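Sample pair:
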Amino acid sequence: MSFCSFIATNYEMPEVETKAKYITVKEAIELEIKPHELVPWEKMDPNSKILFVENEDDLNELVIKKDAYYDVSGYTSYPFIYEVNFIYSELRAKQLLEYLKENIREGQILELWKVWIGLDDNEINIPYIRCYYEELSLNHLVKLYNWNYEKFKEQYCIILER
């Protein structure tokens, strides 16, 4: 089974890109990036790609990209799917809350899902809540993404209306 979080809508939304990027070892040397002590640049192929971030926290940042790695068509009838990836922190949950409120259109519905892919579809009974965008709060997202929260929901859907 695999965890998947996604937004489903009937309109296109902006993506949120990652700050992490791949650069070559040669580019890392030119940028004077300090190598890891166990693997100096000289021992690596100059054309090898490495993952680079300015700040370690950027590895776990909020990323929202069109389409999803998994087929989630069985969960929603909306045509526009956006995969949501991040490691929970209050800051990232606030960023997601802001994104949702800024991007839900007047008179539209947006679904925010968190599901386990691979469960027997006949056994899926995912709880959901319906709320207006003015009512959506950080508490809703904490319940969805913070594994340590007392009222954490393993699978859940928030149906957001405006």
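The beta strands are 2-9, 21-24, 49-52, 63-66, 80-85, 109-117, 128-132, 156-161.
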